[in-house]
Amino acid sequence: MHIPDIEKAIAELSRVLRKGGMIIISEANMFSLQSVIMNSLKMFRGMKMTKAGLEYWAATPDGKYLVREVNVGWLKEKFERRGFKVKKRISGQFTELYTRFSRRMPKRLIHAFNYFLV
Asked: What is the rounded (10 degree) CA torsion for 46, 49, 55, 56?
């Protein structure tokens, strides 16, 4: 999500991972309901479409950083070409919203929503 040269990062992960090892990756999916809704509200951010997904540079008091909402199909293909196999996918939509609730019922509803999306 924040690595500018994602293809180089994938190559390095495949180089250093022990045979039979496992990588767990958490990425924002550009096709998720959350991304579609949020991006329709924030088109002013200077997003651009790349082969890896939607990207933009966010400014903070400490400097700029890349934000990418990945094209999951592209990412999966890149890893598969290097011999990786996807064993499991878990939807994590609205996880930022999840952190804003203190009550159990809204949190359970978000978990249930993600469970049925996969």
From this structure: -10
Total length of the chain: 118
CA neighbor of 36 nearest in space, from 53, 61, 22: 53
Q: Indicate the pTM of the whole model.
A: 0.74
> Domain containing 14: what range?
6-85
51 and 109 in a single domain? The answer is: no
> What is the largest distance, in Å, between two alpha-carbon atoms of the chain?
44
**Structurally, how many domains does the chain consist of?**
2
Task: Encode pLDDT of 5-47 as tens digits.
Answer: 999 999 999 999 998 899 988 888 888 777 777 777 765 567 8
The answer to whether 78 and 11 have CB atoms below 8 angstroms apart is no
Do 10 and 68 sit in the same domain of this protein?
Answer: yes
